[in-house]
Automatic annotation (TrEMBL):
Pfam families: PPR, PPR_2. NCBIfam families: PPR (TIGR00756). PPR repeats lie at residues 65-95, 96-130, 167-197, 198-232, 299-333. GO terms for molecular function: RNA binding. Keywords: Repeat. PANTHER family: PENTATRICOPEPTIDE REPEAT-CONTAINING PROTEIN (PTHR47926). The keyword Hydrolase does not apply. PROSITE patterns: PPR. InterPro entries: PPR_At4g14850-like_plant, PPR_rpt, TPR-like_helical_dom_sf. This is Uncharacterized protein. GO terms for biological process: RNA modification.
Length: 379
């Protein structure tokens, strides 16, 4: 396909498949550059499945092209279709480092970290070169499954020995891995050894301490970040608000809220939820309501945070009324929502209503109850 045709394809990303078919009907033939461009458009739009392109790749005889296969593999992974990605990967006649990278990243990002780590072991046995992208993906997988030993091996074998370039991206992945594996001291050592730090690395340590339930350390790191003159982003602020809530550090939490307003930061549902949770845990339910009512966008976590706050403040009827409002808004509750609802029923002595909501959780929403749900029901 000529370059002019490729330009047309890229300029019509909203309907890439339809435009591609229209060009074929005009008698233009695809070449090895056509499908990577088309697949990239699909990955951006996420509206049409890569299998539609896959059939044409096979039809026009490009299925043996490693570059095209890698693009297709990446597209399947981004779409979340790991079954087709695995099948394509297994059937590839030739695999390069990009093939392995796409498959490992796809597994980790789609919640299948054990498969990603298994592929990493297999990749090493084939002698494929390990790069920084692979290292970050594997470290993410190690954090998800809590495999600190493999994480330490990757750290020592590929980072400290200089086989991959030590940069902020890898350092932040190391901090995150150690924290998720419960080794916050290891995360701190990585942080202290970094030749330079940015907001991402500071945020990684702030959130890392929270994952290890070391909330005071999280706040101290946040204060150190401010002292260094770095401006926190929304992720940093969300993390420190979580720490403030657990510590009951109302004044620090209020300072963060003022910082958000003073700097004109957009209060999205994530930060809004953290603010609601912080105010509720610090005993300021009215402030939590003000934040809730001021949010233009609310999700299940936002509603759940306030329902839980009301329940914990001994306001069961208000909590259940808010839950009813949530359902009328078309927000689907999750297991944490029902835990908050059962907590409200427990505080209010509403045994029959608690049983009703418990059955509703099972029958209408197909949420499998956990031990804490059962304990709340009978407490």
């Amino acid at each position: 396909m000529c370059n002019k045709t490729l330009t047309i394809l890229r300029s019509h990303q909203e309907h890439p498949i339809n435009k591609y078919l229209h060009l074929l009907r005009q008698g233009l033939s695809p070449n090895q550059h056509t499908y990577p461009s088309l697949l990239k458009s699909l990955s951006t739009s996420q509206t049409q499945h890569p299998s539609q392109v896959h059939s044409h790749i096979f039809k026009f005889g490009f299925d043996s092209d490693t570059f095209i296969s890698n693009s297709l593999l990446s597209s399947y992974s981004k779409f979340g279709d790991l079954a087709n990605a695995h099948q394509l990967f297994d059937e590839m006649r030739q695999r390069d480092s990009i093939s392995w990278t796409s498959m490992i990243r796809g597994c980790v990002k789609n919640g299948m970290p054990n498969d990603g780590l298994r592929l990493f072991y297999e990749m090493r046995s084939f002698g494929v070169e390990i790069d920084g992208v692979i290292v970050v993906s594997v470290l993410n997988g190690c954090g998800m499954v809590g495999n600190v030993r493999l994480g330490q091996c990757v750290h020592g074998s590929y980072v400290e020995c200089g086989r991959v370039r030590w940069d902020l991206y890898i350092a932040s992945a190391l901090i995150d891995m150690y924290a998720k594996c419960g080794d916050c001291d290891g995360a701190r050592r990585v942080f202290d050894e970094m030749p330079c730090r940015n907001v991402v690395s500071w945020t990684s340590l702030v959130s890392g301490y929270i994952q290890c339930a070391r909330f005071q350390d999280s706040v101290l790191v946040f204060n150190g970040m401010l002292f260094e003159g770095l401006e926190p982003n929304l992720m940093t602020l969300t993390s420190v608000l979580t720490a403030c809530g657990h510590l009951g550090a109302l004044e620090q939490g209020r300072w963060v809220h003022r910082y958000i307003n003073r700097n004109g930061l957009v209060l999205n549902s994530i930060v809004g939820t953290a603010l609601i949770d912080m105010y509720a845990k610090c005993g300021c339910i009215d402030d939590a309501f003000k934040v809730f009512n001021g949010l233009s966008q609310k999700n299940v976590y936002t509603w759940t945070a306030l329902i839980n706050g009301l329940a914990m403040h001994g306001l069961p009827f208000q909590a259940l009324d808010l839950f009813s409002r949530m359902l009328k808004e078309g927000i689907r509750p999750n297991g944490v929502t029902f835990l908050a609802v059962l907590c409200a029923c427990s505080h209010g002595g509403l045994v029959d209503q608690g049983k009703m909501y418990f059955n509703q959780m099972l029958e209408h929403y197909e949420i499998k109850p956990k031990l804490e749900h059962i304990m709340k029901l009978w407490s």
